[in-house]
Design a protein that fits this description.
- The protein has 22 helices and 2 strands.
- With about 450 residues, the protein is mainly α.
- A two-stranded antiparallel ribbon has the order 1-2.
- It is globular, with a radius of gyration of 24 Å.
Length: about 450
């Protein structure tokens, strides 16, 4: 009870506008509240939660540097170990001060808090708390994106993507987050959004986050005009000087074609030519425009797949990554073959066979960093997303190790697991039909999935 009362008191202090005013006694208390991160990290990773409790208490302190230090320790602890036991008891207790940090903290504090919330969502998995994390996070994250602080935007985009990926069981919820992102990616698409130039790193993070959420979409309710605008905008980004932007746009384009939305537009417009003349003319014009856009994109990706260098970064690794990506895109658009990849996780191999899986894998690898192998070995949410079962789990009967919340992953029809599995099967059917017909996306007679 004493700890809970202390948290309430400190929460009211945090809400004060006078965030930097401290007495000497509170300064001493703040310094004593947060243990040294490096000295205590091993103890937290070893399974104890006492230090995590101390870090959470420190998030209610008035001194910004104290909160930053606590958030850094929490991010490290959640990255390098699955904190199931702690989260089961303290999910909301950790969430609220992190949201306050996003609302009121420094740039560094906002970024750390965004990462902490994303890690919290990945640890919680698809249980009831995941939806609560999403709904509580949307307002402050949306406001942080509108604030335009460049140093925090990438972290905020990634956080919004993660909490929506885990907690967004309704397609409308996912679309809402994607629309928030799209208004930053393409400022003219939304009201009250600054049209100022977006830094390349931020735009890349925004596109990657948007694409990550698009991987969960099987039947998107976004209207046809929106899809046409998005593919056209990404096509324009393929001509940008920054190589990271071109790569992110290329992945988004491949994913849109994999889902079949652009072919669906073409099919709708082609069949609508039987409508009255005043409607049919517009539909036929749009059909011709989409076919022309497909041809333009194919020409662009072919050129980028063999680029000799000189445009964008001079880093040879970046150039190689671009060539490899766009070679895969060309092969996919021309022949319908998705890139087949594999990655070693401990003594196991994780395979991907669709653009959706590859984009999910790359996004989570970037977000988790050095903690990715640990999460892939132990995080049941990721096991189900990628249909990956480590051998040691098979040998130990991993099902018995699940919490009640994690077991819902296997039962809920709206879980990330079932959404991903349904989407994967739909895509496989689409690819099979196109291969049997002997053509793919750029055939005028192609039908969308």
């Amino acid at each position: 009870m004493g700890k809970r009362s202390s948290r309430r008191k400190n929460a009211s202090m945090l809400d004060s506008d006078d965030d930097d005013t401290l007495s000497s006694s509170s300064t001493v208390m703040s310094d004593r509240t947060v243990p040294d991160v490096e000295e205590s990290q091993g103890k937290v990773q070893g399974g104890g939660t006492k230090l995590l409790d101390e870090y959470v208490d420190a998030l209610f302190e008035k001194r910004g540097s104290t909160r930053e230090k606590a958030l850094s320790a929490i991010v490290d602890a959640f990255t390098n170990k699955l904190q199931y036991q702690f989260v089961e008891k303290n999910c909301v207790t950790l969430l609220h001060p992190c949201l306050n940090s996003i609302k009121r903290g420094s740039s560094k504090e906002k970024s750390l808090a965004s990462r902490a919330i994303g890690l919290l969502a990945l640890t919680v998995g698809c249980e009831n708390n995941a939806a609560e994390i999403l709904e509580e996070s949307i307002p402050p994250l949306s406001q942080a994106l509108k604030s335009g602080l460049e140093s925090t935007l990438s972290s905020v985009f990634e956080c919004l993507a993660i909490v929506t990926f885990v907690g967004g069981n309704d397609p409308d919820v996912t679309e809402r987050s994607m629309q928030i992102m799209w208004q930053i990616i393409h400022p003219k698409s939304g009201p009250n959004v600054s049209a100022s130039k977006i830094a390349p790193a931020v735009l890349t993070a925004a596109i990657s986050s948007w694409s990550f959420l698009l991987t969960t979409v099987s039947e998107c309710k976004i209207n046809s005009k929106s899809w046409q605008d998005s593919i056209s905008y990404f096509s324009n980004l393929l001509d940008k000087d920054d190589r990271s932007i071109r790569i992110a746009a290329g992945e988004a384009i491949a994913l849109i074609f994999e889902i079949g939305q652009l072919d669906k537009l073409s099919g709708e417009d082609r069949h609508s030519s039987d409508s009255p003349v005043h409607e049919g003319n517009n539909s036929q014009e749009r059909y011709a425009y989409i076919q022309g856009l497909k041809g333009k994109i194919l020409s662009q990706v072919r050129n980028l797949s063999v680029e000799a260098g000189g445009k964008g970064s001079t880093n040879k690794k970046d150039l190689g990554s671009q060539r490899n990506l766009f070679r895969d895109v060309v092969e996919f658009l021309e022949d319908g073959y998705c890139p087949q990849t594999s990655i070693k996780i401990g003594g196991d191999i994780l395979y991907t066979s669709t653009w959706s899986q590859l984009i999910q894998l790359n996004f989570l690898k970037r977000f988790l960093g050095g903690g990715f192998p640990k999460h892939m070995q132990e995080n049941e949410l990721l096991h189900d997303v990628f249909e990956f079962t480590p051998k040691k789990r098979q040998a130990s009967g991993g099902e018995q190790l699940l919490t009640s919340g994690q077991k819902r992953l296997f039962k809920s029809p709206n879980s990330v697991v079932n959404k991903a599995r349904t989407q994967f099967l739909n895509k496989q059917r689409m690819l099979s039909q196109d291969r049997n017909a002997g053509h793919f996306a750029f055939c005028p007679g192609s039908e969308g999935a």
